[in-house]
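Notebook entry, structure prediction.
Reason for the run: the old model in the group folder had no record of what sequence produced it. Starting over properly, with the input documented here first.
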Amino acid sequence: FQQFSDTGSRKEHVKITSEPKPGFLERLSETSGGMLIGLVTFLLAFYLLFTNEGRALRTAKSLDEGLSLVVSLDSIHSISQQNEGRLVHLAGALSTSKPLFDPSYGLSIQAVKLKRNVEMYQWVEYEDSKEYEEDGEIKKETKYSYNTEWKSEVVNSRNFDREIGHKNPSAMAVESFTAVSPNVQVGSFVLSKGLVDKIDDFKQLSLSHLEDPHADVTRKEDYFYHSDNPRRPEVGDLRVSFFYAGLSGDDPHLGSADRVSLQLLLYFVGSVPNSETSKYFSLSSKVTVIARQRGDQLVPYHTKSGDVLEILYPGDLSVEEVFQKEQESNTMKTWALRAAGWLSMFVGISLMTRIFHTLVDWFPVVRDLVNIGLKAFALCAASSLSLLTISVGWLFYRPLWALLLALLSIVPILVARSQVLPKKQQ
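New structure, fully documented this time:
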């Protein structure tokens, strides 16, 4: 049954549900389902750990290969046929042929990407639950609270525990979008789609010097509001902000990109940048690229190790700096996936051995001891099996290191055994 207790405010209420305490067979059935999930998680850990090691070593070899072959270009404004098909390194300012527009707000910017972000003022539901045992029943007390916030996605109020008084519109009148320039260059070289995708250092566009674009739209700070009163918005009101990535190109009103302080143009229909608006401008983006030269295009480079090199970083970096960053990124990704694999194995073993905890659940002292033992077993087994799996992954690449890791995988078992023997003697 359900029992409702209202706090007197329509923004918060408490619901209490209760159900009979599950019997032994019911809990055993639930544990069996958990064992199946544990088995899948356990097997997934082996796959994740094994493939991660092969990926990490393959990427490291590909980066070493790239570093030994890469050629730094003397000029980004001339294309040398001698470098056709080779891995090249270059740095320069981004350029695009045409500005990106948002006609709905009369806004334009010379950049690689322009993102319109639309948020709606709407109700959001929060839950805070706790379970307890009372009169032989398991009771769950859930506190629901509601607050109004700006959200970039529509919150479906139909899923609320109490929709009355907290109803949201089903859709936004204005949609978010990201415009991408169809032709992005560094000097005379055209960037591939993969390189353009890497230009994602979005910064919010300042709108403080602009006027309201329409009668029903109000500008306040760096937002356009579809609201009667932006200071006190109502549910369903919208606010729109803009972000850009990869400033680029030249503008006849401001001078060349290497002489102005921001290669950015914002205007409404009929307006022209002047000395007042130029203070909002800054230098166009400079990037460093390592990719294969194919005519006037920069495309992915396929290494002998089987990886693809298609690298872009903001700023002016040397070849050594770029490959050092890539090696560091590879190391971080490798350790993150190793941790995820170990955790997956630990959770899987814990779920598969949970049945022993269920069998002694009626005896509190024995249950606590078994619980501690099962966690220790899962910890040692996950550590040993993770090291063993990693060593197998290294077997074809670094056999000596693989043997060392295989020997290390025995250590957690020996440590656990050394703790058990004194207890038996006692």
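Summary: The two ends are 52 Å apart (CA to CA).
The old model has been moved to the deprecated folder.
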